[in-house]
Design brief:
Largest sheet of chain B: none
Oligomer: heterodimer
Order of helices and strands of chain A: HHHEHHHHHHHHH
Number of domains of chain A: 2
Number of strands of chain B: 1
Structural class of chain A: mainly alpha
Radius of gyration of chain B: 28 Å
Largest interface: A-B, 92 and 86 residues
Strand content of chain B: under 5%
Helix content of chain A: 55-70%
Strand content of chain A: under 5%
Number of domains of chain B: 2
CATH topology of the largest domain in chain A: Cytochrome Bc1 Complex, Chain C
Radius of gyration of chain A: 24 Å
Helix content of chain B: 55-70%
Order of helices and strands of chain B: HEHHHHHHHH
Number of strands of chain A: 1
């Protein structure tokens, strides 16, 4: 380049270099601040969270009306539920003697306890709605078509896991609403011919909803199903990339 | 020479096409990441506001001795609980959801074409079929629910100020086919215990005797309706020339399924009062113990 570097650099430039071109920043992020196309692509390609995305995307897929962010928001709600759920676990003991008192204690005595519980509850309902709407979006945009057939099946599995996560969480407050909703729900399973009763017995660890059901639902809710859901989500997101990103008209 | 020139021209065309595709692309950072960030923030704020204003429900401590009336499952299972009122519990609670999920998962293996991909309802007729499916699914399920709640009897008695004819008692609702028709006594209890022995499979001994009127009302009629009506719907669409391809049929069926799902969920949530009686939402009272 023929242009000469100016003698003195502005305060802003020097600050910028000090913040984003130093040894520590480079050790963490590998690329400079993403204000040039090169750095913007590097930041997506070299960051473990952002590399869920490709570095470039077709302009129609950025339009909000193409996806309404429904799948992304389902994932966002899953993350929010994980965070609020971990905080709730600090205060909740899954025993018939303590569960209900712990919820009362959480609502009345714990700072922001009510907020954590309310957020967890409404996010859980929101996630069921989001996942259902995401399924409708994928169907109506024909995004299940080849080569994305199997990812649709993974999505159906995730829908079931979402419902099971919500259902197992429903019992945990151990109030009348929880107890009888789970009684009604598990009775439906128990009504199946031949295999129903043993399955119901395995689900709730007895003939009626009680301490065994509470600990089973709790364990599934806080570790079993989230791990399973996270695994299927990893497959789901990976397959989106492998199958060529979002569906495009031919 | 000619071949080489052709090759150059072709590769130039390919490169031009690739360039055009590139021109249509945006960088994920900032164009997509920004949208995602805004969406996440809007939802976080909205949910926080909701959580500050509306408390999650918490009733009295669980008491197995006190059954609330009505006892309802979580809202996303109330569609199944609604089905439970109209058919055999095994059918409503296990078989229908299983079949529905398998059918959902099978959609891409049935409709393998590439048409209508990547754009909202982009095949010809797609929007029309979606609306037809929604209308047929919602109106059909509402009619069936009203029939089982004897709405036609109430309307008839309201209009004529008379009584529903005794001869027609068997179509007051689905259950009256079982109760108000002169079924021979033997049809109500066919002993199968000597033949169907679950204890031989290592399962608890179960009575699997057959009650034909019960079987007819709780299983045969619901299965015929749930299988038959969608098939008739597709045949009618095909004969009318509305649905030509598999994608067309899938759109109509999927829209119908969603409509039925929503109607059943809404009815189960807002229209079922004590004893799961069908009521308008403003007459539905909170459960009593």
């Amino acid at each position: 380049m023929a242009t000469e570097r100016p003698e003195s650099r502005s305060m802003g430039d020097r600050l910028y270099d000090a913040l984003f071109h130093n040894y520590v920043w480079r050790s963490i992020f590998r690329s400079g601040y993403p204000n040039t196309p090169r750095n913007q692509m590097l930041v997506v390609a070299t960051n473990v969270f952002l590399h869920l995305h490709p570095t470039r995307i077709h302009r129609t897929h950025v339009k909000i009306t193409h996806t309404y962010c429904l799948g992304g928001l389902s994932f966002f709600l899953f993350l929010g539920l994980t965070i609020t759920g971990v905080l709730l676990m600090f205060y909740y003991v899954p025993s018939v003697e303590r569960a209900y008192e712990d919820i009362l204690h959480l609502e009345q005595d714990v700072r922001f306890g009510f907020l954590m519980r309310n957020l967890h509850r409404w996010m859980a309902h929101g996630m069921v709605i989001m996942v259902l709407m995401h399924m409708m979006r994928v169907f109506y945009t024909g995004a299940y078509k080849p080569p994305r057939e199997f990812n649709w099946v993974v999505g159906v599995v995730l829908l079931v896991l979402t419902l099971l996560l919500s259902f197992t969480g429903y019992l945990l407050p151990w109030d009348q609403l929880a107890f009888w909703a789970i009684t009604v729900g598990t009775n439906m399973v128990g009504s199946a011919p031949v295999l129903g009763p043993p399955n119901k017995f395995a689900m709730i660890g007895g003939f009626e909803v009680g301490p065994n059901a509470l600990i089973r639902f709790y364990t599934l809710h806080v570790i079993g199903l989230p791990l399973l859901a996270a695994t299927f989500m990893a497959v789901h997101f990976w397959r989106i990339r492998r199958d060529g990103g979002l569906a495009r008209p031919l | 020479m000619v071949a080489a020139a052709q090759e150059t021209a072709e590769s130039a065309a390919v490169r031009a096409k690739a360039r055009r595709a590139r021109d249509e692309e945006l960088l994920v950072w900032p164009d997509l990441v920004f949208v995602e960030f805004i969406a996440a923030m809007v939802f976080l704020l909205a949910l926080t506001a909701l959580s500050i204003t509306i408390d999650a429900p918490l009733l009295d401590r669980a008491n197995p001795a006190v059954t609330p009336n009505p006892s309802k499952a979580p809202w996303y299972f109330l569609n199944l609980q609604e089905l439970l009122l109209h058919m055999d519990p095994a059918l409503a609670g296990v078989i229908v959801p299983t079949v529905a999920l398998v059918a959902l998962g099978a959609i891409p293996y049935y409709d393998q074409s590439n048409e209508g991909q990547g754009e909202w309802l982009s095949t010809p007729n797609a929007w029309r079929l979606m609306w037809i499916g929604t209308a047929v699914g919602s109106i059909g399920s509402i009619i069936l629910i009203l029939f089982d709640a004897s709405m036609h009897v109430r309307i008839y008695e309201g209009l004529t100020h008379g009584k529903w004819p005794v001869a027609l008692n068997f179509i007051r609702n689905a259950r009256s086919i079982q109760n108000d028709l002169p079924w021979p006594a033997w049809t109500r209890a066919i002993d199968t215990n000597p033949i169907l022995r679950t204890d031989l499979l290592g399962l608890p001994k179960m009575d699997l005797s057959i009650n034909i009127p019960e079987l007819f009302v709780a299983q045969i009629i619901p299965i015929s309706l749930m299988m038959g009506l969608p098939i008739i719907f597709s045949i009618v669409l095909w004969k009318m020339g509305e649905a030509k391809t598999r994608r067309d049929h899938m759109i109509a069926q999927f829209a119908g399924f969603i409509a039925v799902y929503v109607v059943l969920t809404l009815v189960g949530t807002a229209f079922r009062g004590q004893g799961m009686e069908l009521l308008p939402p403003w007459l539905v009272k909170p459960p009593v113990s």
